[in-house]
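ESCALATION

Customer reports they have been waiting on this structure for their group meeting. Please prioritize. Original submission:
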Amino acid sequence: MMLDDILKTVQKIIGDQVGREVQPDETLSDTGLDSLDVVEAMLNLEEAFPEAHLEDYEPAMTLTVRELAEKIDWRKVGQ
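Update from on-call: job pushed to the front of the queue and completed.
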């Protein structure tokens, strides 16, 4: 899966959670997610990207959607 595909999936998962389209340069905080929502989003992302091993990763609310997709891509490549 290419980074663009990962980004689209991350946008969809977070967008579905917040009920609107999210932009790549929005921070998780900007999307309207609170800390509990981020935990739920991470569980959903783990289901979508089990090979990325996200269980040990706690994203900062200041991470952008694009940065989160890049971290997933990096973790998949770095296996």
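Sent to customer with the following note: The CA atoms of residues 31 and 79 lie 29 Å apart.
Escalation resolved.
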